[in-house]
Write a structure and sequence with these properties.
This protein is α/β, with parallel strands linked by helices. It has 8 helices and 9 strands. It has a 7-stranded parallel beta sheet, with helices on both faces. Helix 2 links the parallel strand 2 and strand 3. Helix 1 packs parallel to helix 2 and helix 4 runs parallel beside helix 5. The chain starts with 17 loop residues before the first strand and ends in a 5-residue tail after the last strand.
Length: about 260
């Protein structure tokens, strides 16, 4: 099977909920998740990104495509604690409290360990792992006070598996998995759930620009379906984890993958 299935319409899994998503402007998993949340009936939505023009365009497109008008954008670099706190404060205010946080911000790259600089290592870890930590730390007190909420983190199968040139990214995503499990145990007593998705390869424009055609073809060939995932297929699992259908799940990392090797 090399063709993706038909797009799955919404089923109101997030009816009445408010959602905040980081790094959600553009054509990647974050925007797909934002669109899915709107289609699944969320009452209000805020997305963040570091690119002003892309963020403005993403907000306008979400409103036009889904019909949801309670959509806001907020600039935020997750490596900056002041911006993280400002994002959470704005979301709490505009959305009337955040029911769902999707931590999507992350940075990849390809570099052998022996050629990798401290700055290259640290940048990937700071955005991908520490950024997820900062957002979780900022949001949890609000959710815990209300006694409810769901956080969904974006990890990767590379947190489990090895690939050349990906030591920094794999280490960061493995850290996201560990952060998910440990913070989930702490948050459970306050009624807050924290889970993660672990995609293998989801094809989008940024990934096409950042990776060679040869590498993408090689990665897709390892999938049982013989293709990369569509970004909305990953977003579907994020929505499930954010919804009440996953009410007994916390500290879990769900693989969104058809890898057989």
């Amino acid at each position: 099977m090399k063709e993706a299935p038909s797009y799955v319409p919404g089923h109101q899994l997030l009816a009445g909920k408010s959602v905040l998503i980081t790094a959600a402007a553009g054509a990647g998993i974050g925007f797909a998740a934002a669109r899915k949340c709107a289609e699944e009936g969320c009452r209000a939505l805020m997305i963040s990104d570091i690119h002003p023009r892309r963020l403005e365009e993403a907000v306008a497109k979400l409103k036009a495509d889904t019909g949801l008008q309670n959509v806001w954008g907020q600039l935020c670099n997750v490596t900056n604690e002041e911006e993280v706190q400002a994002l959470v404060a704005a979301a709490e205010d505009k959305l009337g409290g955040v029911d769902v946080l999707i931590n999507n911000a992350g940075l990849g790259g390809e570099k052998r360990v022996t050629e990798m600089t401290d700055d290259e290592w640290s940048r990937v870890l700071d955005i991908t792992l520490t950024g997820t930590f900062r957002m979780t730390r900022a949001m949890l007190p609000h959710m815990e006070t209300r006694g409810r909420g769901a956080i969904v983190n974006n990890a990767s199968v590379l947190g489990w598996r090895a690939q050349k040139g990906q030591a920094h990214y794999a280490a960061a995503k493995a850290g996201v998995m560990a952060l998910t499990r440990c913070s989930a145990v702490e948050a459970a007593e306050h009624g807050v759930r924290i889970n993660a998705v672990s995609p293998s390869i989801a094809l989008h424009e940024f990934l096409k620009k950042a990776s060679s055609e040869e590498l993408l073809a090689q990665l897709a060939s390892r999938e049982a379906f013989g293709r990369a995932a569509e970004v909305w297929e990953v977003a579907n699992v994020m929505v499930f984890l954010a919804s009440d259908y996953a009410s007994y799940m916390t500290g879990e990392v769900l693989s969104v993958s058809s890898q057989h090797a």
